[in-house]
Amino acid sequence: MAPDADVAKPIFLTFDDGPCEPNTSQILEVLKKYNARATFFVCGRNAERCPEDVKRAASEGHAIGNHTYSHSPWLALTGRLEEGIEETSQIIERLIGRQSHLLRFPWGFGRRKIKHWAERQGYHICRWDIAVYDWWRVPPKFIAQRVIQHARPGLIVLMHDGDQATGRGNRSHTLKALDLIIPALLQQEYEFARLANS
């Protein structure tokens, strides 16, 4: 995946499973403080609960991606995700006024059949290069060190602003880690970009 613009040293922060309050608003505040861009892969159910977060993220220059409607493990395992993807696509378009072609499967897992279907529909399937294990609520310093030590141009980082489709989840460690990651990598002349949506 390439950034929207010509960026010499792009790095991509991506946030899954939201939106979720207060996490998403707090993460948006940190990103705004550093003029950093990111990509939010939203669950349709959570986007319906927190529509203003989706609208705000888009209006502040972040990319919005599709993370299915319910993040269902059963649907992911059986490969029957089409309906949830299409429903979430409609929710995103209704909220931000344009389509999103970015798609991330729950846990990054999509059977061959659903991948082929998604590609035929024009979706760009987005994986990641490094996970920070924030779903285990690891310390902020661990999260930050993991990203900083593995930083390279084009790195896609998997983080979370929600907890699957429950509408809950404490992401305070992720939030604190951002205040360590972003200034450290800005000093190394990285630019925080969003994934291209075309």
Protein described:
α7 (140-150) runs parallel beside α8. This protein is of the alpha/beta class. It has helices at 23-33, 44-49, 51-59, 73-78, 82-96, 112-120, 140-150, 172-187; strands at 10-18, 39-42, 63-66, 102-103, 124-125, 130-131, 155-160, 191-192. Helix content is 42%, strand content 16%. The strands form 2 sheets. Strands 1, 2, 3, 6, 7 and 8 form a 6-stranded parallel sheet that branches. A two-stranded parallel ribbon has the order 4-5. The protein starts with 9 loop residues before the first strand and ends in a 6-residue tail after the last strand. It has a single domain, classed as TIM Barrel (Alpha-Beta Barrel).
Compact overview of the structure:
This protein has about 200 residues and is α/β, with parallel strands linked by helices.
Shape: globular
**How do the SSEs run, as a string of H and E?**
EHEHHEHHEHEEHEHE
- The number of distinct β-strands equals 8
CATH homology-level superfamily: Glycoside hydrolase/deacetylase
β content, as a range?
Answer: 15-25%
Mean pLDDT, nearest integer? Answer: 92
Estimate nothing, just give the exact number of structural domains.
Answer: 1
Biggest sheet: strands, sense, closure?
6 strands, parallel
Give the distance, in angstroms, between the N- and C-terminal Cα atoms.
10 Å
Second CATH tier, the architecture: Alpha-Beta Barrel
The CATH topology: TIM Barrel
Structural class computed from helices and strand pairing: alpha/beta
Q: In percent, how helical is the residue content?
A: 40-55%
What top-tier CATH class fits best? Alpha Beta
**What is the assembly state of the chains in this entry?**
single chain
> Which spans of ≥5 residues are poorly predicted at pLDDT below 50?
none
Evaluate the radius of gyration.
15 Å
> Helical region count?
8
